[in-house]
Specification:
The structure is a homodimer.
Chain A (H helix, E strand, L loop, with lengths): L9 H9 L14 E10 H13 L6 E4 L24 E5 L2 E6 L10 E6 L2 H10 L5 H4 L6 E7 L9 E9 L1 H12 L10 E2 L26 E6 L3 H9 L4 E4 L5 E6 H4 L4
Antiparallel strand pairs in A: 1-5, 1-10, 1-11, 2-5, 3-4, 3-10, 6-7, 7-9, 8-9
Chain lengths: 266, 266
C-alpha cells in the first residue's frame, strides 16, 4: 500500500487508485478536495434514480452524472476520470443484496451504465473543523454513527427509502454554528435536519448505530443529525435492481473540485 | 387613542406619536418597517455605551446614533425623525432606577444628549412568520418571555451586564430553519445563542421569566434563546448614570427602513 498524503491532489489520488496501488479509505486524503459517493446503474432505471435524487436533495445531493450512458468519464468532477478504476474499492449489488467486492469494475462495465456522484459529509466536516468545531467521529478516530429513521424519502419509480442520518454530538452553541456553516453547503447534505430527542426520528438507542461506529456524548452535548449518503444504498436495497455498483463505504471518488468552491456565498 | 394600522408607514406612525395621538405598544404597527430600541445618554458616557454595543453586537445591535450630541434627528433611520417626540412612551432613569414615565421628553432634552437606536426582535419575528414558523408569543398574544443568564457581556467603561435572552419554543426542524433565517439578520440580534437545556445559561425555570410573559412549550418543542435588547437596560441599571432615557418596553421607534433590507444576502 502506498501512503496517500493529505497534500496530494485529487488527480494524484485517482492515479494511485487506477492501478490499485491505493485501496484504503479516502478520509484525510487530498485535503481540501471534494470526495463523492458513487452509484452506478443501468440506463433503464437511471432516470428514476436521478429523479429520486432530485426529489431528495438532502440525503442524495447529486453533483454529477455520466455525460452519456456507457461513458466512464465524469468531466464535471475532474480531468481524465475513469469511474471503472478510480475508486479504491467497489461493491457489486445483485437484486438489492451485496454480492461482491472489487478493486475495479472494468470487466463488468456495460454500454448502458450511468454513474451518479453524490456529495459527501467529508466536505462539510472539513468546514466544521476549519471553524474550530470538534467533529467527534474524527477526534475519536472512528466512522461516523449512522441511523435508519422513520422519515420517508419522496419515492421515484422503483426507488423508496426511509432516510438514513449521520449523528455528530456537540454543545448547542457549536450546533448553531454548525447549522450556519452547513447551510452554505447544500450540495453536501446542507444543514442538519434534526437535533436533540432522537426518538422523534424513531431512533431508539444512540449507542447502537445501524451503520458506522458509536461516539461519546459529553454532558453538555446534543446529538445533531444530518441527512446521510447511505440513504441511496437503502433505496437500492429496496428497489432490488438486477445489478448495481457503488463505492465501498469510506472509499470515495476523490475529485478535482475544492470543498471551498461548494460554499454558497452568504 | 388612534388605531395604528398595520398598513401605515413608519413615518405615519411617528406622526401620530409626535402629537401623542398614539401611545400604545407598536407591535403590529406599520408592518414591514424596522422598529428600534432607544437609549439616550449624556455625551460623557455615550462613548463607553457605544463601545459596549460594539463589543456585544448580539444583545446590542447598534443601527444608528445621533449625528452630533444634542441633535434630535436620526437621519440614518428616517426623514424628519425627532427622537424627543417620536416614540409612544418614554422611561426616565435616574441612577439606574426607573424614575418616571413620559409621553415625550422635549422639556428634558439637553445639548449633550446622544440617542442610540438598537435593532429589535420584531424584525426577525416577521421573517420567521413569513417562513411559516409559529412564533409562540405572537400566537399566544403575549410579550416574549425573557430571562437573565449567567453569560457575561464584554464590559466597556461603566457598562457591564449579564446577557438577557428571549425564548421562543419550537420543534427542532423549525429551530434549524429559524437559525438559518436569523443568521441573515445580524443587525437584529442574529442567530440564537443557545437552545435546549436552559440550566446551561443559569436559567432555573422557563415558566418564570424575569421579563415578559411565560409561553407554552409543546411536547416536541425545544426552547430557543436569542440575545435580547433588554440587556442594555440591565447595563444601565448596573452603571447607574445620573440620567438616562429609554423607550417604554414594546413602545418602539418605528423607522423608515424595511425589515427585508436588513437581510444579508445568502
Amino acid at each position: 500500500m502506498v501512503a496517500v498524503a493529505e497534500s496530494m491532489s485529487g488527480e494524484q489520488v485517482r492515479a494511485l487508485c487506477r492501478t490499485s496501488a491505493f485501496t484504503e479509505p479516502t478520509s484525510g486524503a487530498a485535503r481540501g478536495y471534494v470526495q463523492c459517493n458513487i452509484v452506478i446503474l443501468p440506463a433503464d432505471i437511471a432516470k428514476s434514480f436521478e429523479e429520486f435524487c432530485r426529489l431528495n436533495p438532502k440525503p442524495c445531493p447529486l453533483l454529477a452524472t455520466s455525460p452519456t450512458p456507457g461513458d466512464p468519464s465524469l468531466p464535471a468532477l475532474g480531468t481524465n476520470i475513469d469511474i471503472r478504476y478510480d475508486i479504491p474499492r467497489y461493491r457489486i449489488w445483485q437484486k438489492g443484496a451485496l454480492a461482491e467486492h472489487r478493486l475495479h469494475i472494468a470487466e463488468l462495465w456495460r454500454d448502458d451504465f450511468v454513474a451518479f456522484a453524490l456529495g459527501c459529509s467529508f466536505s462539510f466536516e472539513e468546514a466544521l473543523l476549519n471553524a474550530g468545531i470538534e467533529v467527534r467521529n474524527i477526534s475519536e478516530g472512528v466512522n461516523v454513527p449512522m441511523f435508519r429513521t422513520n422519515l420517508d424519502c419522496t419515492p421515484a419509480g422503483i426507488f423508496t427509502a426511509k432516510m438514513v442520518v449521520s449523528m455528530r454530538p456537540m454543545p448547542p452553541a457549536q450546533a448553531i454554528e454548525a447549522i450556519q456553516i452547513c447551510s452554505r453547503y447544500p450540495s453536501v447534505h446542507g444543514a442538519p435536519i434534526h437535533f436533540g430527542d432522537a426518538s422523534q426520528l424513531g431512533i431508539e438507542d444512540l449507542s447502537q448505530p445501524d451503520f458506522g461506529d458509536p461516539v461519546s456524548l459529553n454532558e453538555d452535548d446534543v446529538p445533531v443529525f444530518w441527512a446521510c449518503g447511505v440513504t441511496p444504498q437503502v433505496a437500492l436495497e429496496n428497489a432490488q435492481p438486477a445489478l448495481a455498483m457503488t463505492h465501498e463505504p469510506g472509499h470515495m471518488l476523490v475529485t478535482d473540485l475544492k470543498n471551498v468552491d461548494l460554499a454558497e456565498d452568504r
